[in-house]
Automatic annotation (TrEMBL):
Recorded GO MF terms: epoxyqueuosine reductase activity
Residues binding [4Fe-4S] cluster 2, per UniProt: C195, C211, C238, C241
Pathway: tRNA modification; tRNA-queuosine biosynthesis
EC number(s) given by UniProt: 1.17.99.6
Family: Belongs to the QueG family.
Record keywords, A-Z: 4Fe-4S, Cobalamin, Cobalt, Cytoplasm, Iron, Iron-sulfur, Metal-binding, Oxidoreductase, Queuosine biosynthesis, tRNA processing
Protein localization: Cytoplasm
Main location: cytoplasm
Stored Gene3D superfamilies: 3.30.70.20
Subunit organization: Monomer.
Protein name: Epoxyqueuosine reductase
Role according to the record: Catalyzes the conversion of epoxyqueuosine (oQ) to queuosine (Q), which is a hypermodified base found in the wobble positions of tRNA(Asp), tRNA(Asn), tRNA(His) and tRNA(Tyr).
Keyword Cytoplasm: yes
Length: 306
């Protein structure tokens, strides 16, 4: 027991050293409560054309199918809230996309954390996950006490709101588990009322196929005409349900240099966006999440917004 607590303490202090905002630990096992919810969500086609969300259904719900003999899920949060923002006369991009692609930034930190665990604790097997594998990030983070899942289906915390990334290490090591926290959304419906496309179809249920982020990032075809005029100038992603959340009054700027925006991005006006060339796009958004939509995708979104 003493050893287990010592290992747990070590991992949490290492996570802090690497710049993570928080670290919580939960027991690896089948997510019983989430299984029917996920099935229902998929059956109603709320994933739209994100067909990858239907893949690996069992693995999404059971981390022991991802890591042999997995004992626990170490959930980690990394802040991305910026200290500078785009100018008001601009097409908007989601704050998480201001800097370098978070997949690479976080993967490096997770590798270092796993290496540190193996170097100091011994023969530990594990895998790192950042949003690109069949892991229900928010469910695990909530289970390990890092926050609660709010009415906008984002993980929320009382101290720092919701502008952070979630990642995991699934390991075959026995550790002390954290307890889930309570829901503090109360009677607030700010996110539901503010959603530009009414994608939050009920408290705690988001129809992914109606979300501005889905249309501007995931959808590869033309954006449906009935959405014209509803995007509130969002060209890549959408932060509305986070921006209006009262808990985000407590967001603090991150301290990760790789998430700092290219100064050119912050100074771009709508005119600059409309006239952007592929060459400029490649320079300003080098290693950026915007590369996912590619130049053509961003052009399509901006044309749609005019």
């Amino acid at each position: 027991m003493i050893q287990k607590s010592k290992y747990t303490e070590f991992i949490k202090s290492e996570a802090k050293r690497l710049g993570f905002l928080a670290c919580g630990i939960s027991k690896a096992g089948f997510l019983e409560e989430e299984a029917p919810r996920l099935e229902n969500w998929l059956n109603k086609n709320r994933n739209g054309e994100m067909s990858y969300m239907e893949n690996h259904f069992d693995k999404r719900l059971n981390p022991t199918l991802l890591v042999d003999d997995a004992k626990c899920v170490i959930s980690l949060l990394l802040n991305y809230y910026p200290d500078q923002f785009q100018k008001s006369d601009s097409y908007k991009i989601s704050k998480y996309a201001y800097g370098q692609d978070y997949h690479f930034v976080i993967k490096e930190k997770l590798k270092e954390l796993l290496f540190s665990i193996q170097s100091n604790i011994g023969d530990v097997s594990g895998r790192a996950f950042v949003d690109s594998a069949p892991v229900l990030d928010k469910a695990w983070a909530a289970k390990s006490g890092l926050g609660w899942i709010g009415k906008n289906s984002n993980l929320l915390t009382q101290k720092v709101g919701s502008f952070y990334f979630i990642a995991e290490l699934i390991v075959d090591l026995d550790l002390d588990f954290d307890n889930a926290t309570t829901d503090h959304c109360g009677t607030c419906t700010a996110c539901i009322d503010a959603c530009p496309t009414q994608a939050i179809v009920a408290p705690y249920i988001v129809d992914g196929s109606k979300c501005v982020s889905y249309f501007t990032i995931e959808l590869k075809e033309n954006i449906p005409q009935e959405m014209k005029g509803k995007f509130d100038d969002w060209a890549f992603g959408c932060d509305v349900c986070q921006d209006v959340c009262p808990w985000n009054k407590f967001s603090k700027p991150h301290n990760e240099p790789l998430f700092n925006p290219n100064p050119e991005l912050l100074s771009m006006s709508k005119k600059d966006w409309r006239e952007i060339t592929e060459e400029t796009f490649k320079v300003v958004f080098k290693n950026s999440p915007l590369k996912r939509s590619k130049f053509q995708g961003i052009k399509r979104n901006i044309d749609f917004l005019q």
